[in-house]
Amino acid sequence: MSFPIRAITLDLDDTLWPFAPIGERIERVLDEWMREHSPQTAARFPVAEMRALRDRVFAENRHLIHDLGALRRLSLQRALLESGGDPALADAAYAAFYAARNQVDCYPDSIDALARIAAHLPVAALTNGNADLEVIGLSGHFRFQLGAREHGAAKPQASIFHAACERLGVAPAEVLHVGDDVEMDVVGAARAGLRTCWINRDGRHWPHDDPQPDLHFDNLAALADWLDAHAHHHPSIAAA
User: What UniProt keywords apply to this chain's record, in alphabetical order (predicted)?
Assistant: First the structure.
């Protein structure tokens, strides 16, 4: 398949790095932090109970689904209050969470592939999560990072895709959105009028008759290869 592309928007969690190890680290770090700074909270909310509380807070505050940081702060405040801890500790607990959240281990192909992709086209990070590319050390590959909290709405809402396209100065039909999530990334971007690339690292079957992803690879290196191969055919790729 061949079509002109002038820019790329790229998902982060489970596209550049796996999120599951980050989630496990966050739970461990918060539990250790609470054991040191608010033992009654750690006793009342060990890892499994803290996870259940987080899920309840998320479910009760769907209006904040675009702001995962705010939801996490609410969870920590609730845990401290319900355990008889000091709610003023919530900010420090959040800082411990955020440091752990930004300790990422990229997929083996990701960093080299990202550099190759960014050499062809302007790349913008488009995420519902709260990772910070500056802290992680990858911001140099991106024109900008647009998060759901900053925008005020999360993928798969069309507005966040359109906001990224506007900042890139490129029409949606000439932007390729790259991500792992079927609904939030591929279906959402397609319905917003973007081209789509599904990064399917675990061999899932595409569940929809329509829309279909324009491109489908099992890693980012394969997308970089595709861009290399098509740079000679599309000046918009070659000259970016």
Answer: Hydrolase
For 20-101, give the CATH class.
mainly alpha
**What pLDDT, in 10s, does the model give residues 3-18?**
889 999 999 999 999 9
Give the CATH H-level superfamily of domain 7-17+105-238.
HAD superfamily/HAD-like (3.40.50.1000)
Could you state, in order of their start, the residue ranges of all structural domains in the chain?
7-17+105-238, 20-101
Contacting residues for 196 by C-beta, under 8 A, at least 6 apart: 176, 177, 178, 185, 186, 189, 190, 211, 213, 214, 215
**CA atoms lying within 13 Å on the CB side of residue 238:** 7
Task: Say what the alpha-carbon torsion angle 83, 84, 90, 95 is, to the nearest 10 degrees.
Answer: -60
The tokens for 32 are: 């250790």
Residues annotated catalytic, as ranges: 11
This prediction has a pTM of 0.91
Q: How many CB atoms lie within 10 A of CB 229?
A: 11
